[in-house]
Each structure stands twice: as C-alpha cells, then as structure tokens.
Amino acid sequence: MDERPHIEIQNLSVWYGEQRALKDISVAFPARGITAVIGPSGCGKTTLLKSINRLLETSDNVRISGRILLDGADIYAPGVDVTEIRTRVGLLASKPFPLPMSIYDNVLYGPRIHGLCRRDNADAIVERYLRAADLWEEVRERLQTPAHALSTGQQQRLCLARALAVEPEVLLCDEPTAALDPISAQRIEDLLRGLKRHMTIVLVTHILRQARRLADYVVFLWLGELVEAGPAEQVFNNPLSERTRAYLMGDIG
Amino acid sequence: MKKLRHLEEHVFRFLMWLSLLVVLGSLMLILGTMLWRGLPSLSLTMLTQIPKGGYYLGEEGGILNAIVGSLCLASGATAFAWLFSLPVAIYLHGYASRSRTAHLIRLAMDVLWGVPSIVYGAFGFIIMLWLGLRASLLGGIIALACLELPIMVRGMDEALGTVPPALREASYALGATRFETTIKVLLRQAVAGLLTAVLLAFGRGIGDAASVLFTAGYTDRLPDSLFRPVASLPLAVFFQLATPFPAVQQRAYAAGLVLTVIVLAVSVMARWLSRHLTRHVVR
Ligand SMILES: Nc1ncnc2c1ncn2[C@@H]1O[C@H](COP(=O)(O)OP(=O)(O)O)[C@@H](O)[C@H]1O
Ligand SMILES: [Mg+2]
User: Fold this and answer.
1) CA of A72: how far to CAs of A31, A80, B198, in Å?
2) What gap in Å lies between CA B169 and CA A97, rounded to an integer?
C-alpha cells in the first residue's frame, strides 16, 4: 500500500430513513488488485459499494454524509457529474440483469451513450469486450438474439462485458457469483483474477473462501461499522481484532 | 374434524365453479344475444352505407356514419390522452415515484376513474359553451380524452411499476442519465403493458355513449370536419333501440355487434403487436 490509494473513503455514514446503515467508515482501497469486503449479510456491504458509484442516491429516503475521494477528488462534491463517476466506476451486480435488447446492443449500450461507438467500430467493440468476458465463442453466432435467452452464468458474463465496454478504472462487484452455479462462479473468479492487473476491483462477498482465493486486501464490516482493513495475508492469518478472528473462525456472523 | 375439512374443500370448489360459470355464462349470454338479434340484419349495406331517408323507419341505408365517426372519436381521444398520460406516467416513475406529488396524482387519477361518464359529457358541454363550440368531433374527442386519461395513466403507471428497480440501476451504473434510462430501458421493458393501457382506454372510449351525447352530437353524414357533429356507434345503438320498429331495433343489435368486433379486433392486433415488441423483454 505504498502508492496513493485509488479510492479513499472518509467518515462515510449512510442512513435509510432513520436507520443508520453505515457508521463513520474511513478506509482506503489501493490501486489495482482486489479488495474484498467481507461481513455477514445485512452489515452494509452493498450500501458501501453503491456509495462508491453514487448509485445509492437513486433510491428514496437515503442520506449520505462524508467524503469519497476517487484519485483524490471528492465524488460527492457539488458540481460533479454523476454519469461521469458511474462511467469511471463500473458495477457487476449479484443477479445479472441484461437490458431488454440483443446481446450485441447490451455490450454497446454504454459506448453508445458515451459517444464512443461509430458505425465502423461497433462490431470490433462488441467482439473485444465479449472476448474480455470470455463469452465470445459461445455467442458469436447469435449476437442479435435477446440477451435474456442466455443462461444465468452467460448473462453474468454479458453484464461484465457490458460494464467493461465503458472502460471503467474501478469495478465494483456485489457478490457476483451468488446466483451462479459453481462452474460459472469459477469462470467469473478467473476473469476477476485477470482483470485485477489493470483495474481496481472491490469485491463484496460473504463467501470467506472466495475472499481467501481472490483478495489482495480485505475490509471487514460488522453491523455497519468498519472493524478491520488490511492486506489479505494479515487479516486472514493475523487479525488485529478479536471480532475479525471470531468471524473468520465461524464463531459469529 | 377431517370430514369438516373435506366438506370445506368441496364447498369452496363448488363456489369457484359457480363463479366461473356466472362469469363465462354472462359473457356467452351477451355475445349470444347480440349475434342472435343482430346477425340477421347485419349486411354489407349496413356496413357500407350511411342512413338514407326513412332509415329510422326501417328503410334503406346503413351505419357507416357511426362506424367512421366512432373510429375518429376514439382514435382522436386516444391519441390526445396518450400525449398527456405517457409523460405523467414517466414522471410518476422516473422522477417522483414515492413523493407527495406522485401520491396526489395517483389519488386524482383514481377519483377521475370513478367519475361517471355522463359527468364528463356535461363537463365537456360546459367547456364547449364556454369556448363557443357546438357539438362537434373536436368536442367529442376532448370529452372522451378526459374519460380515457385516468385509465391510461393508471395502466401505464402499473406497467412501469413492474420494471425491476435493478434493471434501472443496471442502466444508471453504466453512466446513463435518467432520460436515457427511461427511453431505452424502462419504456422498452414495459412496452406490452403500455400498449395494453392504451388499448384499454381505446375500448372504454369507443364504447361510451354518455360523454359523446352532448359533445359530439349525432348526424347522418360522414365526419368531414373537426367542428361539425359526428355520429357514433353507442348512440346509433341507443337511437335505434329507442324506435318502436322491430326491424330498426334489430339493427341496434347489429350496431352493437360491430362495436364489439371493432374492440375485439383492436385487442387482437395489440396482442400481436406486443408479442413482436417484447422479444427482448427481460422476464
Ligand atoms: N433501500 C433500503 N431501504 C431501507 N433499508 C435498507 C435499504 N437497503 C438496505 N437497507 C438496510 O441497510 C442495511 C445494510 O444493507 P446492505 O448494504 O444491503 O447489506 P449487505 O449487502 O451487507 O447484506 C440492512 O439492515 C438493510 O436492511
Ligand atoms: Mg448485499
């Protein structure tokens, strides 16, 4: 963690109505590599993730305080263009939701919106990102068919291709294998392992073994509070907090 | 104890069958009556001619004036209502889904839905007097559009409400604006429901007699101007049924049959259309 952190969260608190979901979180995510956010269900992992691409504010009744710095600039500062933040910070949700259009148009949805897609490079973009998501060989013959006809595992890889197509620098993954069979889950894990070399990945998971397999850094949340954060090695083998130890041993959570 | 539960099961099943029978039976009875009374006098002349002199005494002519008039009235009103209800429905969903304003709009639409159509007719009539308009196609369209508006808004509201929030979020997460998300994702996903709402409103509009009684008037001529009276099928049924001549009364049933067939045809068409439009919809 020598370089400057890519994402820096400072005193972040989030309320849903009266209920406080995150309590004064301060943590930094180093550039590149996979940071796993672990913790039991309902501890605020998704909330933390959605605050990083400002998706949280699309639901009603949410209040956010604190700062989140992306490359040193506060994404909640007044005058910041939300769509630009969401372009730089991609999201892979836990359940794949293909957009109601063809496979081809799903991949191009982002590039078209951001004016990156011309008539002569569209096919190339589609092929490039479908390959990046390891889906090309399976769908090359049926690019124009509806995306929802794919299997769940394929849909998730399509969602990954769609996210990558806008060239984000950060990829947020919210339990990306939760809805998948073991083989599809394995493929997603392999892809993330390849992607971490040039992007910052924040992986929310409640599967400890997955975190152990993939994470370079670990953040442990408990009931909306940050308990511990550090290199994976250290958190898993030598946690500082008693609560982390108990959670890792399976005593709590 | 066990016996009692079995008895309950039987009673419940009997009630279900009875309700089903009543519902299907009344539908059959209505269609049957119309076919039985109307079919004999339904002829090509009836569909292709306007009333000649003495038509209402049982002589030559047809109800083309009412068919064309009704189609004009209902299409105009549906287009008019659509123009206003789509933005309202989008506002309710993309911009203010749980706000106080949204709540008020929904309440207003529910109240308007319950307003009897004769009230729309009377209301339209006052507006027309006020504007110096006489009974006319335009007047009828305005009154019918008011009648259709709440039906369409609520239908579209429901349709857009079925779009999973996560789908919208998927679009936002790619850097799409609210407008882009609405146009490219929300409307596409909800297209079948939106079409159904439009259709429901059309069906309600074309079948309504009370709201066009004062506002559109009636005439034996084909519609030729927005500012002249037009005929309509519901009123054709009403006037012909009110004559003392059995032959003319039979034609009333034929006119009713034509009205039913039009609604049926539009409904089948919309189903076909929505099947083709929902190829990509996520289920
Ligand atoms: N839209 C919402 N409205 C109200 N409460 C919410 C909402 N989303 C999440 N919560 C609450 O916030 C807490 C944290 O939720 P979440 O971030 O989804 O946890 P996790 O992803 O770790 O399971 C939970 O108690 C949950 O009930
Ligand atoms: Mg979650």
Assistant:
1) 12, 13, 51
2) 9
* Closest among A28, A35, A33 to A8, alpha carbons compared: A28
CB of B119 closer than 8 Å to CB of B208: no
DSSP symbol at A36: E
Exposure of A31 by Cβ count < 10 A (0-12 exposed, 13-18 middle, 19+ buried)? middle
Residue B184 at interface with chain A, using a CB cutoff of 8 Å: yes
Most confident of A79-83, B100-104, B278-282: A79-83
Confirm or reject: Cβ of A157 under 6 Å from ligand 1.
no
> Which residues from chain A sit within 8 angstroms of residue B170, using beta carbons?
91, 93, 97, 99, 159
Ligand 2: distance of its center to the CA of A175 in Å?
7
Measured between alpha carbons, how far is A82 from B108 in angstroms, rounded to an integer? Answer: 34
pLDDT of res. B144: 94
> What span, in angstroms and rounded, lies between the C-alpha atoms of A42 and A222?
9
Instruction: Tell me if B180 and A90 make a contact (CB, 8 A cut-off).
Output: no
| Ligand 1, pocket-test mutation among A37, A47, A207, most atoms within 8 A of CB | A47
Strand order across the beta sheet in which A73-74 lies: A19-29, A7-16, A62-70, A73-74
The answer regarding whether domain B45-277 maps to CATH 1.10.3720.10 reads yes
- Is the beta carbon of A41 within 6 A of some atom in ligand 1? yes
The residue extents of the domains of chain B are: 2-41, 45-277
Atom of ligand 1 nearest to the CA of A204: 21
What integer pLDDT is reported at residue B159 of this predicted model?
92
Any CB–CB contact under 8 A between B174 and chain A? yes
| Beta bridge partner(s), residue A14 | A22, A64
CB of B246 less than 8 A from some CB of A: no
Please state the pTM of the whole predicted model.
0.86
Give the atom of ligand 1 at the shortest distance from the alpha carbon of A60: 1
ipTM for the assembly:
0.94
Q: Which two tokens stand for residue A24?
A: 């004064």
Q: Is ligand 1 within 6 A of the CB of residue A21? A: yes
Q: What is the pLDDT of residue A194?
A: 95
Q: How far apart are CA A26 and CA A32, in angstroms?
A: 19
DSSP structure string for A137-190: HHHGGGTTSBGGGS-HHHHHHHHHHHHHTT--SEEEEESTTTTS-HHHHHHHHH
- Cα–chain-centroid distance for residue B246? 30
Contact status, residue A125 vs residue A143, Cβ threshold 8 Å: no
Each residue of B245-282: pLDDT tens digit?
888 888 899 999 999 999 999 888 888 888 887 777 76
- Please tell me the distance in Å from B268's CA to the nearest CA on chain A: 24
Helices (H) and strands (E) in chain B, counts: 13, 0
